[in-house]
Amino acid sequence: MELQFTAILASVALGGAVVVLVFGRWWLPLADADRRVKELADAVEALLQLRSELLKEEPAPESDQTRAWLRRVQEAQDEVASLKARHDGGQLYVFRLVQYFLSTGPVAGLAEQQLKAVRALREQGSALLETALATPQAPPPLLRQPEELELQPETRSARPYINEALRFLGDCDASLGVWGAGGVGKTTVLKQVREACGLVAPFDHVLLIAASRDCTVAKLQREVIAVLGLRDAPTEEAQAAGILSFLRDKSFLLLLDGVWERLDLERVGIPQSFGMVAGRVRKVVIASRSEAICADMGCRKKIKMECLNEEDAWSLFEANAGDEAIHRHPQIPALAKQVAAECKGLPLALVTIGRAMSSKRTPEEWADALDDLKKSQLSSAPGTDKNTLSLVKFCYDNLESDMARECFMACALWPEDHSISKDELIQCWIGLGLLPAEFADVDEAHRFARSVLSVLETARMVEQGDNHRYNMFPSDTHIRLHDVVRDAALQFAAGKWLVHAGVGLREPPREEALWRDARRVSLMHNSIEDAPAKAGGSLSEAQPETLLLQGNRALPRRMLQAIQHFTRLTYLDMEETGIVDVFPMEICCLVNLEYLNLSKNRILSLPMELSNLSGLKYLYLRDNYYIQITIPPGLISRLGKLQVLELFTGSIVSVADDYIAPVIDDLESSGARLGALGLWLDSTRDVARLARLAPGVRARSLHLRNLDGARSLPVLSAQHAAEFGGVQESIRELSVYSADVEEIVADARAPRLEVVKFGFLNKLRGVSWSHGAAPNLREVAIGACHGVAHLTWVQHLPHLESLNISGCNGMTTLLRGATDGGSAAGELVTFPRLRLLALLGLPKLEAIRKDGGECAFPELRRVQTRGCPRLRCIPMRPAASGQSKARVECDKHWWGALQWASDDVKSYFAPVLI
């Protein structure tokens, strides 16, 4: 038995040896083919990397040699892909043997030939890359010398720095560092470069980005896509790829303000490297308090900004204090020069203190101010944080009232360098109770708040901010705090406030000392996604009165569980915090709450337990995601102190039938008074019910749909003033969607109306808008109104800032001719304040004006046009000298076919080709 078993093993071994000898010989060529194909794939990968590097240096190849090489690389890539697919096609050994022996060209041999060709292409590509790198490329000469430009008078002291920065645009350096102490004017220089560079050097795009402290890649990306008008991407990597793809073949100037540490611009998506690249100019200017940071960011050329000398300091101070204040009494000029000297040549202090002294009229007031300044000055060098803190404190103390000081302090709750919407800021002031309480309605409070803002702007405690919507240019719709001023404000509130806004937090601060005595807490615009699992730790003893969490788009439920114990809370802002479906019942435990903002979430219903908040004055639920929301009967009447209620969906498609009926019933039965009401309504009957409640209830925002099949819109008609007069008097925002309205006649006076939106009005044939009916109308949006042929009436709106027309298939011209009730032929039509013009999906639009006349847009900042194939001309007059360029977001083929009245008109626009 054992002998038989041994014989069997010997036979198996002998058979295995024969198989190895026979088939192993056949396997060798197959293994060789695998090796060759892998070598070829690695070689092609290296070739493609070389192509990428060459395109970085020469995005748009001009030489025939380079273009021919790129074509051969593409052909080689295709051939190798075909060869690899053929090689990988047979996976089983037997099939691969058959393939090998029957093939007229064995894979290994073909791979060897292709490998030689790829290696030859790599050698040629390396030579082309060396030539591109070695070829000196001089930037284009400056269009105008900086000295020829007219700059704003208040920038006279910074003129030498501005001129040097503008000359940098025409030299061979790729990066420029502007550094100096806080408040010396670095931001002013960057803003002046942005405004003037279009007259000095040609760039496709100029990006002024505030980096600020604790800056993250994501934050920089958000700023960049806002300036460029690009879309959001789900990840940082995808966003970087989108930015890189857009900027790779364009000339651009990147102005980075307030840099505190080295930033990885490549991760943001900014193309590398800077300098002159194949006829494209890429330049960057870094503004920082540290020379080392500028050097670390690659700036070989640097400008140090110093405090002003005595003569320039006096000139700047005198310009801001004013001749009337300084020369009112013979003793004041000497005192004024001493006050100016206390500013230590710091431009920010000279401006703010100069403005603060402009109201002083007697020598005694000047002498007292001088004494206060001397007492507040610390023994520190000019421009240091301690010095600027005391100077800002002096200006703060000299504001005209405690209310103005409180309003100023509230601005510091927003992130550093953040442009704050004035409407958002005023809503916050009202919610915090900083304004007098005697106003009859919210509009009066807004008007008063704007006067307070004017005081702060005049005192230079706040400055003009940028509006993303209008191409990031300074706008009277936004303000911002200088970082030095904001730092000082937070120092004034030290120990009372906890402000970590816009710093990329993933969880709330854990230090108990920060929370213990904090009365106002701002964690807005972070990425908080974690919180204590239960009440305790740093949050256990916290009792803030104000909590701002807006902009944390994925706020965890555990955060709500933690803050439900903040029983002293009177102000809670949770706009856009990712609330889904269920109303957060924890809020109903905050019995002292007076202000609640839950806008831009996904809430299905309001609970009756919300009536626990008996002191609630302001409830905002704007732009709710869902198309229906349930409101229990009796809820609104139980909120007896309610003054503002804004409650409507963000959808324009459908609303639950009669969802708002309980609200109107409550208002009628309780006799409640609301200073501002915003609602969706389905019938003119409900609008009439609201009108009968006025002036007890002021309908500030109305969103109407269906309207019982009504053919006209009576809300804006003078004929129906007796029925709707209260609404006409108080309405600020009107939207009409998905209705059978055929005609809109707006001849009733609506003095407060600012925003009008019409959408999905398929039967609408025309809009008749009387002159002066809405003198303050600033935004018009018309969408999917296919019967509308023109919008001539918009040319008579002196305050119009935004005009958005989309999906109107029947529109042929924007403005009619003289014979059709429009402007006379040859007459210039001016839109004095229009900043945004959007023309989207208008397939029959052929002209802006039917008569071909010209238009003037002196404030235009942004144009969006897509889906307008017949529109071939924008009839504009040449822009005034020094006017900033308007960005045009459009299809590259449409842009290429556009006809221009002159090169001067074309040079006014900067295209963003999509």
TrEMBL record:
Q: Where are the transmembrane segments?
A: 7-28
Name of this chain's protein: NB-ARC domain-containing protein
Name the UniProt key words of this record, in alphabetical order.
Coiled coil, Membrane, Plant defense, Repeat, Transmembrane, Transmembrane helix
Mind telling me which Pfam families this protein's record contains?
Answer: LRR_8 (PF13855), NB-ARC (PF00931)
A GO molecular function assigned to this protein is:
ADP binding
Q: Which residues form the NB-ARC domain?
A: 172-323
Regions annotated as coiled coil: 30-86
Q: InterPro entries, per this entry?
A: Leu-rich_rpt (IPR001611), NB-ARC (IPR002182), Plant_NBS-LRR (IPR050905)
In its UniProt record, which GO terms are filed under biological process?
Answer: defense response to bacterium; innate immune response-activating signaling pathway; plant-type hypersensitive response
For this protein's source organism, the top of the classification is:
Eukaryota, Viridiplantae, Streptophyta, Embryophyta, Tracheophyta
- Keyword field contains Nucleus: no
